[in-house]
Structures are given as structure tokens and as C-alpha cells.
Amino acid sequence: MAPEPALSRHLMQQGTELFRRALESVTDDQLAAPTALAGWTGKHVAAHVAANAEALGNLVRWARTGEETPMYSSPEQRNADIEAGATRPEADLRAWVDRSATALATGLDALTDEQWDRQVRTAQGRLVPATEIPWMRTREVMVHAVDLGGSVGYADLPLDFHAALLDDIVAKRSAAADGPALHLAPTDDERRWDVAGAGEPTTVNGPLSELAAYLSGRPATGLAVGGATADLPDLPRWL
């Protein structure tokens, strides 16, 4: 579930700048070190974000020309591109991140109204209008800006993004219904989210930013279960 297109494009721009800020905040040694993502260094994260921009550029080309251009030829090719990218020299990798982000933004800016409405296929196989491409990119740059372990944390991401991310993940988790039922009650926002799943819903309270971190499978702090300190329910993968 993507937010409305104008908000998605605005958040994508913000997320791109946050990722650049996070990348600038880590040294080359830190970039080569492991992250909280299993098996990935910061170089893997940066390579993934750069390769993602190019893959989404394929969808922009599809929207512009009407010729089917998948994001990746296969999941194996996607993984191989990330592994290869993670071996690049740090300076080359940083330049690739910047160059690919600029090219994607330029391509999106050139789409006409008709092209924005054209259907493209995500890496998960969903047919969506091209208007969803900015939101697909926003998720990547926002979440992975935090994964780099630099100066950007979940609390630094825009509140509009946290709410939109919860809308998106709640819809996906509820459709799959392969995890625990949850009732998410932010302590700093009046909105509430319910995740369909197994058992009676578990109420999780805490800051909106930390609820977004938890639901996206990232480390979260300051959350309470039913108003008390307790272990959070384990969640299956989101994407």
C-alpha cells in the first residue's frame, strides 16, 4: 500500500538525502564492517541501494517505453550484483550510490501523466502503476539509511514516512497472516494499527518510529507489551 504519489515523491527525495547523509557519516572502515543485517557489511547495504536504483530505473524505462523491462533477470542476479558491488573500492561504491540515485530521480521526473499510470511489475511479481516506484525507492533509502549504522536513526526519519511504512507493512503482514496478531498503539500519535494474525492481538505501545522499526524487523527500543516490559512477539520476514 503506497501513499499518494505526491507524498511518495517528496519522501523519496527526503530519503535519498538521508541515505547520503548516513553514508557520509561512516568511515571506509565502518562501511566495510558488519551491520545488524545478517551477512551484510555496510558495503553490502550501499551496493544494494545503488543496484536498487538501477533496477527501479528498469521499471522507469518500462513505464516510459511500454516495453517490459524487469527489475532483475532473476533473484540470483540480484544477489550476485550486491555481492559484486560489495567488493568495489569504497570511493567507487559511494560514487555509484550517488550516480544511480541521481539517474533514477531524473528518469522519474521525465515521465508523463500517461506513463506514470502504466503498469509495471515489482520484484515480488505484483503489477502496480509506475506511481508506486517512488514509494518502493523510499522504503529502501529510508530503512537502509538506518541500517548503515551511522548518524541516522529511526527517530530521524520523517513521521509521515513512519505512518506510511506502518500502513504498508500492516497491509502486507495482514494479507499473509503468517505471524502474531498485533495492535499497535503509538504513545506519540493518535492513530492505531491492527495486524491480522494468529491468536489474540498483542498490544504493543511505544514511539511511532520504534513501532515502525519493530514491524520492519529492525532493532527497536522503548516498546512495551500491554503496557508492561516484556518480550516482543517474533515476526516473520516482511519483504
General description of the model:
It is a single chain. Helix 3 packs parallel to helix 5. The model has no long low-confidence stretch (mean pLDDT 95). This protein has helices spanning 5-25, 28-31, 42-65, 75-85, 90-109, 113-116, 133-147, 159-176, 208-215; strands at 119-121, 127-129, 180-186, 193-195, 198-206, 224-225. It is α+β, with helices and mostly antiparallel strands and 239 residues long. The chain has two domains: 5-152, Four Helix Bundle (Hemerythrin (Met), subunit A) (Up-down Bundle), CATH 1.20.120; 159-225, 2-Layer Sandwich (Nonspecific Lipid-transfer Protein, Chain A), CATH 3.30.1050. It starts with a helix and ends in a 14-residue tail after the last strand.
Keywords:
239 residues, alpha+beta, Four Helix Bundle (Hemerythrin (Met), subunit A), Nonspecific Lipid-transfer Protein, Chain A, 2 domains, 4-stranded mixed β-sheet, two-stranded antiparallel sheet, 9 helices, 6 strands, isomerase, SCP2_sterol-bd_dom_sf, MDMPI_metal-binding
What's the structural blueprint in terms of helices and strands?
Elements: H1 5-25, H2 28-31, H3 42-65, H4 75-85, H5 90-109, H6 113-116, E1 119-121, E2 127-129, H7 133-147, H8 159-176, E3 180-186, E4 193-195, E5 198-206, H9 208-215, E6 224-225
Parallel strand pairs: 3-5
Antiparallel strand pairs: 1-2, 3-4, 5-6
Helix pairs in contact: 1-5, 1-7, 3-4, 3-5, 3-7, 8-9
